[in-house]
Amino acid sequence: MKPFAMTLFTKHHLGLTAICLAMVGSVHAQGLKVAPSLLGPRAQAAIQQSNEPVAADHIVAVVNSEPITNHEVRSRLDRLEQQATRSGTPMPPRDQGLKQVLEALILEKAQLQLAAELGIRVEKSMLDEAEQTVARQNQVSVAAMHAQLQAQGTSLLEFRDNIRRQLTLQRLREREVESRVRVSELDLDRFLSEKMDNPGADLQLNLAQVLVVVPEGVEPARLATLMQRAQMVAGKARAGEDFAALVREYSDAPDRSAGGAMGLRGADRYPDLFVLATRQAAAGGVVGPVRSPAGFHILKVLDKRIAGLPDAVAPQTRARHILLRPTAQMPEAAALAKLATLRQQIVGGQATFEALAKEFSQDSSAPQGGDLGWVGAGVFVPEFEEVMNRLAINEISPPIASRFGAHLIQVLERRQVELTPREQREQIRQLVREQKLEEAYAKWLEDIRVRAYVEYREPPQ
Questions:
Q1: Which of these, 134, 276, 305, 429, is most buried using a 10 Å CB contact count?
Q2: Which residues make Cβ contacts (< 8 Å) with residue 84, sequence separation at least 6?
């Protein structure tokens, strides 16, 4: 059975599988026995078949007076190993994995304790909304999702408790870290200065060349002729003639079939002569002839970028959709079924997407035939955008659900647009903020771990 996927709770998008694998059962019973009701069916069956009683569980660590049991560590590692097996991801040796999971649980408990002290709570309505979003993203009803989770050995109590923990950790991070991270104009200027003034190995180039070979021991008259030929080619290139055509006609290099392109790679993998010659040239610029022991080189800068900086161009998509908003009279399942019928009409040539959008869509784009115009990444909600990005031009999606309703999507066009200097600066601002946020988050976690009182008991087994 395919595990669920989720892209809801954090900026870095936790998967539902990761949430299920992160589950830790609370241990509040006297004698630290694990309550079987907190375990999934498979775990209960395993316990019943085992000769070892549940009461044999033991405390492996105490975090600010709250225990972590061997069962908690072992259960999480078991789930991680199951997921790793499904995805083909390598896992460390089990003894090392137990230690890593224990440390992760210690840090998680310390954060949850801080959240409780700060009064951070997750209401039932938030849990319900989160469940609905997970189900919607996986194109199933909440009831069907519950059934599949139980079939996979995950109880609904475990599932909802884990969602509550993840939402709590997210809200704690937002309050204690994200809300305090600021990016000033000085931060931006410093970042750009470091990148542009000292590009070093971060500089990446894609150069194309026309090579006019100069044989060893060439006579001056022949050298002058070759120099004139190289200058003529350079003049044609600067005048805007197709560089690949010039390569095919004039280059003596073996890379003529590729238009002379040498590929995007670090500047340290190009000859120093080429890097120095193109240092002041922007993308699209032509330099040369440049003399080397091999001959005269006419170089064109096909691409020039600094690793870690956003591209100067960004993808945009023009799509259209038909939106049906679920109501008591037409629940989500009925809306999806209605869209499936409309899709069949379009594919069968009985109606056009535009006409059906004007007639049925409950979105403000309906008068335009559902046309949403040109948009960049991140404009639409993830569950809509992920489907849209997978579509080919003119392809119509199957009916999908988002937090706004049921959709039928068709991609009309895609393009790359050059960003304005202001747009590029805003992208760099976001990049700098992400870096500062990661640094602040790592430092915050380190501080929480240092402040927590942790008593190690018996090692996990």
A1: 134
A2: 90, 91
pTM: 0.59
Q: Is 141 left (phi over 0), alpha (psi -120 to 50) or beta?
A: beta
Distance CA 5, CA 14 (A): 9
C-alpha to C-alpha distance for 185 and 308, rounded to whole angstroms: 18
Alpha-carbon span 264 to 51, nearest angstrom: 61
Domain 199-306 has CATH 3.40.50.970: no
Maximum average pLDDT range among 143-157, 281-295, 443-457? 443-457
Residue 67 forms beta bridges with which residues?
A: 62
- Residue pLDDT, tens place only, 42-75: 334 433 443 444 445 899 999 999 999 999 999 8
- Alpha-carbon span 151 to 146, nearest angstrom: 9
Domain range annotation of the chain: 16-176+452-456, 199-306, 313-418
CB-based contacts of 352, cutoff 8 Å, min separation 6? 346
Domain 313-418 annotated CATH 3.10.50.40: yes
By C-alpha distance, which of 98, 30, 103, 74 is closest to 449? Answer: 103
Instruction: Please state whether beta strands 400-402 and 66-69 pair in parallel, antiparallel, or not at all (unpaired).
Output: unpaired
| Cβ atoms of 288 and 299 closer than 8 Å | yes
Return the ∠ at Cα 106 (arms to 104 and 110), rounded to 5°: 115
Domain 199-306 matches domain 313-418 at the CATH topology level = yes
Q: Which CATH architecture has domain 16-176+452-456?
A: Orthogonal Bundle (1.10)
